[in-house]
Design goal:
The protein has about 475 residues and is an alpha/beta fold. About 35% of the residues lie in helices and about 20% in strands. The strands form 6 sheets. It has a 6-stranded parallel sheet with strand order 2-1-3-4-5-6, sandwiched between helices. A 5-stranded mixed beta barrel has the order 17-18-19-21-20. A hairpin with a 4-residue loop joins strand 20 and strand 21. Helix 2 packs across helix 3 and helix 8 runs parallel beside helix 10. The radius of gyration is 23 Å and the shape is globular. It starts with 8 loop residues before the first strand and ends in a 15-residue tail after the last strand.
Length: about 475
Amino acid sequence: MNRPTTLAKKLYVKTYGCQMNVYDSARMADVLAPLGYANTDSPEEADMVILNTCHIREKAAEKVFSELGRLKSLKRRKEDGGGRLILAVAGCVAQAEGEEILRRAPYVDIVLGPQTYHRLPEMVAKASRAAGSVLDTEFPAEPKFDHLPESRAEGFSAFLSVQEGCDKFCSFCVVPYTRGAEYSRPAGAVLAEARRLASQGAVEITLLGQNVNGYHGEAPASSHAAASEWGLGRLIRALAEIEGLERIRYTTSHPRDMDGELIAAHGEVPGLMPFLHLPVQAGSDRILEAMNRRHDRDFYLDLVGRLKEARADLALSSDFIVGFPGETDADFAETLDLVRRVGFVQTYSFKYSPRPGTPAAAIEHQVPERVKEARLAELQALLTELTTDFNRRSVGRVMPVLFDRPGRHPGQIIGRSPYMQPIHVEGADTFMGQVVPVRITGVHPNSLAGEVSPGGGARPQGEKAYA
């Protein structure tokens, strides 16, 4: 997104949390580019700083206020030198606690929610000419995607937002309150953006949404199908036909929205990677009900079975919350049992922490911190064991690897397997941006080592290369 401009202004964006926030940060930079802002990696060089916040992690708001305290000094130094630093807070913390941010940090110029960043130019203009702060955390009637400039691919992998918001209302989650109701972009708009990204060099696209497999976008006008809407499975099939696009991923999914069409796509679309992030959160039916997850463990295990029946080499990752209010030792034991039965290869696990305004925060039976810490340590030890075992079993396999960045040593490049494993290869820098068969030769703490398979080169689109 660094583009030549007539005004030498610098933008620094610090992104917290999920991949949707990474996408949003890139789009905010797109929106500000016509105003003369180009990205910088240093807040000290910046004329504008945006903190794109996430409300999922523990003590998220306090981390933002801590960062704002550091930026206050930077802002003051800029002003003492006759300059100006516009300071903005965006994202889910801004949406949930906008007025509190302005009360505790009145030096913040702009506070905006996730649905209003297409209005940033207007906000910057107001902040530049007004003495006070600008607050915009409403949920506008018009979709923000209709008002954004065209996205640009900045590498061989690209994010593409297709769905936003959530209607599930899990009792621990703030997303329905900070991102709003579910909205799906029209399929035609998604396909147009995907074609543009592919033409700019993107080989892999990750479809994003808070509840991405709940996608139900308006069918393209050119579609001859009877259905007026497309689900995610139908959208993926259309994406797989785009020239130059070899890999498709999507995240994050809800088990209840994994329909038959999407399951079938996993078995029938070679470009759809055999790695699925499918959060379960807990293994106890009692806790799942308290979380309002709308599925039980048997439903989840049956779903995993159907997915692996569709594609035998499918691997799963998941999210887990330990120490949810009322969780007993028996409940936690059921989570450990479910983890062993599924055999997750990658996971994200956290201690439960209350989010203001969510139903779970009002439950009386909160689990003591020491118990949560002990359970988290036990769960993470098991999850690490499963991931390590999966990586070790990869040795000797030939897997298609998309090389997308240089390594630490001359001639070394790094790519990702279909299962998101980082893989480094020596002396293969000519393969950058290609999907190449690689034989896995070793396991390191945070990556795998490999060598290009004899005769390996860019493989034809859609060709499986697993062995």
